[in-house]
Design brief:
The chain is mainly alpha-helical. It contains three helices and no strands.
């Protein structure tokens, strides 16, 4: 069963060109989505930060120059 939040997850737009997204999708969106930190916050009706990764770690936001 796939994660019910994957259609609205902003992780895809942010990391569309990253190879790591494929790994996150396999593990957290298709597999163990109950373990996804983003999913857990969404279930609690809390705001999910763009910088939050499925494993609970955060990434630094890129500046416009870095993009």
């Amino acid at each position: 069963m796939d994660c019910t939040h994957s259609k609205d997850c902003q992780l895809y737009a942010q990391f569309a060109m990253e190879p790591s997204l494929r790994l996150w999708k396999q593990r957290y969106c298709i597999g163990e989505y109950e373990q996804c930190a983003r999913y857990q916050l969404a279930l609690e009706a809390k705001s999910v930060p763009l910088t939050l990764l499925p494993n609970g770690r955060r990434v630094k936001q890129r500046s416009k120059e870095q993009m």
